[in-house]
Amino acid sequence: MTALPQIRPARDADSEPLAALIAASFAEYPDCHFLWEEFPELRRPASTFAAKGGKLWVVDAPGGGIAGSLGVTPVAEQNAVELTKLYAGPAFRGTGLAQALFAEALAFAEAGGFAEIMLWSDTRFARGHRFYEKLGFRRWPGERYLADVAASWEIHYRKPLRGAA
Question: Rg of the chain over CA atoms, in angstroms?
């Protein structure tokens, strides 16, 4: 078994390679487009997450670029954290990379005493939905429309944490 690349905290300098990972992921789906204007947080990703009390992790791809990413941000009024920016390049899917990234988010949530982890996912990302369900997330009622260039609809997932107050 090959060792996974090391997970590290994101830096603001990761802006371009992180955007490239997300744009490539979107391009795998019909009519799913990436526009910089719709992702201002990617201009300074580490600073943006830190300003919200969250954290963003990335994994460098061998030869350059980013192999995977995951961000987490507290949602204090719900005693939860929200996962965002969970992407893995095609060569790293099924390798355990996403699970390792999720473990970082889980540790963050547990250390903060949060009761749940939640996320929103584009309705087109069926592979991601299977992954979330494998991790114990359950689909929550309701959808939201983003009115973005891709005309995205998202579904909501939540996962309660054990031992949370």
Answer: 15
